[in-house]
Amino acid sequence: MFRFKQDFLASIVVFLVALPLCMGIAIASGAPVAAGLITGIIGGLVVGSIAGCPLQVSGPAAGLTVIVYEIIQTIGLEMLGLAVLLGGAIQVVAGLLRWGQWFRAVSPAVIQGMLAGIGFLILASQFHVMIDDKPKGTGAQNLATIPQAIGKSLAMPQFAPVEVRELRSDLLHEVGELHRRQVNIQERLAEHAPHVPGAEPSVAEDAEPPAVTMPELVDQQQNLVEHLKALTSQVQRLETITEGSKRSQRIQAATAEALTQSEAALAGMQDGTLNEALTLQKESILAFDNLLANLKNHHLAAALGVVTIMTILLWQASAPKALKVVPAPLVAIILATILATVFVIPVLYVEIPDNLWEDVRFPNLAMLSNAPWAELAKAAILIAVVASAETLLCATAVDQMQQESRTSYDRELFAQGVGNVLCGLVGALPMTGVIVRSSANIQAGGKTRLSAVLHGFWLLLFVSALSFLLRLIPTSSLAAMLVYIGYKLINVKAIVKLREYGWGEVAIYAATVGTIVFTDLLTGVLVGIALSALKILYTFSHLETELSMGENGEKTAVLMLKGSATFIRLPKLAAMLEKVPEDVDLHVDFSYLDYIDHACLDLLMNWAKRHESGKGNLVIDWGSLHSRFDRMARIKKDESERKDEGKQLAASS
Could you say which of 422, 455, 490 is where a domain stops? Predict the structure, then answer.
C-alpha cells in the first residue's frame, strides 16, 4: 500500500511533465499534436508494463524530432507510421538477439555532439514557431534567419479593442481547426497515391476518383466548406468594427480565397482524378496558411513565448521547496494559457480533434504498394539506432539515480521495439526512454513500474475527456518551452568535461554538431563515429620517442616514450634503441606512456640483454607504468629477476 501511494503520486507528477512535452515535440516534428499524445499513452500503458528499466518513462523525445521532421518532409506524414513500425521491428529483433549492450557502444563525444546538434536544430526551428511563424527549412537556414525573426517580434504589442481581439481570437481558433481538418483530408487522400521521394504524387489520368471509394472524405470536405462559409459573417463583422482597416481587408480577401480553394478541392474530389484532387487540396492548405498568417500577431506571440521562458527560469530558481514538485514547464504553459484566455490574445492555438483517434492511421494495402522502401529502410534504421542508444543511455542514468531496481538492457530494448511497432501501426511518433520524465518519476518518489503505467492512463483520460482544454494553449508557449529544451540540450558544460580528456574529444564533438546542423542527423552521427574510430587508431598507433644524452660526458641517457607503444611502432622503438651507445646506462621513462603491449616489452627485454653484455645497463621505472599494464610489466620484471638470480646461483655454485 505504501508503494502504491508513492507510485500514484509520482504518476501524477510525470503526467504533468509529459503532457506539454508530448504536444510540443509533436509540433516540433511537424506532426499532429495527437500523434505525440498517443505515443505518450502507449509509452505508459504498454512499454511501462513490460520495460526492462521499471522506473524509466517512455514517450516522444526531443532527440527524435529532427529525424521525424526530415521523414515527414521527405516521404510524407502518411509514411511515418511505416518507418516507425519498421524501426520498432528492428528493436524487437535486436532485443531478442540480446544486442542491448551494443547500442550503448558510442563515444560520449558523439552522444553529446548529437544531443547538442539536435538542441541547435530544435532551438532554431522553434524560435520561428514561438513568434507564430514557420521554420524556414534546413537547420542552417533556421539559424541564419533568427535575427529576422527577432526583428518581426521587436515592435511593441498593440492591443486592439476587446471586441476586435475576441473576434480575431475566435477566428484563429476556428480557422486553426479547419486547417487541421484540411491537412487531415489531404493526408488521407495521399495514402492512396503512388509516391516518389522528392516528387509530387501522381497517378494515371484515367484513375478512378477517390469519391467513389471514400465518400466519407467528400462529406468531411463538404462540412469544412460549410463551416468556412459560416465564418465569413464573422470576418465581415470584423471589417465593420475596424472601419475597413487594411488588416481586416486582407483577412476578408484571404477568407474568400480559402473558401474558393476549399470549394475547388471539393469539386476535385467529386469529379476529378486523384492527382487533380491532391493538387487542389494542397492549394486549399496554402490558402488556409495565408489566412492564418493575416489573423495572427508575431509581437503578441513572441511576448507569450518570452513569458513562458521567464516563468520556467524563475520557477526553477525561486519556487518554494514544497511546490518544486510541480514542473516548471507546466507552470509556464498554464500561465501563458491563462494570459491568452483572459486577455483574448489573437495568436495561434493548439490544433487537436475532439476525438483523439481521428488522427490514427492504420497502414493499408495502398500505402504498402506505394511505399518508397529504400527511403523507409534508411529512416527505420536511423530511428532504431538513435532511439535505442538514447533509451539505453537514459536507462543507465536511471540506474545511477536510484537503488530500487537495475536495468535489463535486452528486455528494455525489446519493450521499446514493441512500443514503436504499436506507434507505427497507429501513425504516431516514435518513442524512447526520456530522461526528463524518468528523473521526475524518481524525484517524485516512484518505486515501481506502476507510476509509468499510471501516467499513461492519466494522459489517456485527459485527452479523451478534456481535449477542449488543450485548444486553449497558445502554440507559441509550447514552442518557447522547446526553445528552452533545445538550449539545455546544447549543454556547454559538456564541452568543458570533454576537454578534460583532450582536444580530440572536443574536435569530435564540434564536428558532429556542425555536420548535423549543416547536413542532417544521420550524417552527423556517422561523421562523429568515424572520427572516434580514427582517434582510436591514432591513439593505438602513435608513439613519440625522445632520446636525451647525459651532459658533461656522463655515460647516461633517458628515453622518453609518449603515446602507445604497440607492435605497429616496433621499428621506430628499435631504431631509437640502436642510437644508444654500448657503454651508456639507459633510463626508460614511462611517465607519459598510455599503453605498452607484449611485443614492445619483449623488445626492451631482449635489447637489455644485449646491452648489458657490453658495458651499459637498462634502468626502467616500473612504478611509472599505468595501472592498465602494470601487472604485465611486473610479470616481465619478475621473470627477468628470476633469470638473474638463477645466473647468480649458477655462478656461485
Answer: 490
